[in-house]
Amino acid sequence: MDKKQLQTAKKRLIELRKDVTGQVDAIKSEERDASMKDGTGDLSGYSFHLADHGTDCNDKERRFITVEREGEILYEIDTALDKIEEGTYGICEVCSRPIGWNRLEAVPYARMCIKCKQDEEEQMKHRERDFFPFQKHSPDEMKEIEFEE
C-alpha cells in the first residue's frame, strides 16, 4: 500500500470516527434529557397507555443497541488508526496477506481480507446449524423462504 492510499485511509477513518462519535453523543444526549425529565417528575411527555409504554421501552432498547454497535465500530476504527501508525494497516490478521484496496475503501477498518472474512462467515453458518440441530433450515435460510398465506 502506498503513502497516498494510507493518507486517504487515515483521513477517511478520522472522518468516520467523528461521524460515529457524533451519533453516539446525540443518542446519549436524548437519553440524558429523558432522564432529567424523569428526575424532575415531569411526566407530560409520557403516555400512561400500556402500548405507548411498550413503544417507549422498545425505542430505548433500540437506542441502547445502536450505541453499543457504534461503540464496537469506534473500537475497530481506533484499532485501524493504531495499525496505520504501526505500519500494519491493510494486513489480514488471519493469513497475513494484504487486504485489497477495494475492501478497505468499502470497510476502512477491515481486519481480514475478503477470503478470510468469507471463510469466517461460512464457519458461523455451520455453528448456527449445529446450534439448531432439529431445525430443518438455519435462521439465515428462514429469512429467504417465502411463506404462503
Task: Explain this structure.
- This protein is mostly helical and 149 residues long.
- It has two domains: 3-112, Four Helix Bundle (Hemerythrin (Met), subunit A), CATH 1.20.120.910; 114-149, no CATH class.
- The chain is built from five helices and no strands.
- It is flat, with a radius of gyration of 21 Å.
Secondary-structure blueprint of this entry?
Elements lengths: L2 H38 L9 H37 L14 H6 L7 H18 L7 H6 L5
Short description:
The protein is an all-alpha fold and 149 residues long.
Principal-axes geometry comes out as flat
- Whole-number count of domains: 2
Helix content: over 70%
- Count of DSSP E strands? 0
- Using only C-alpha atoms, the radius of gyration works out to 21 Å
What amount of the residues lies in strands? under 5%
Low-confidence stretches: none
Q: What characteristics describe this protein?
A:
flat; Four Helix Bundle (Hemerythrin (Met), subunit A); about 70% helix; about 150 residues; 5 helices; 2 domains; mainly alpha
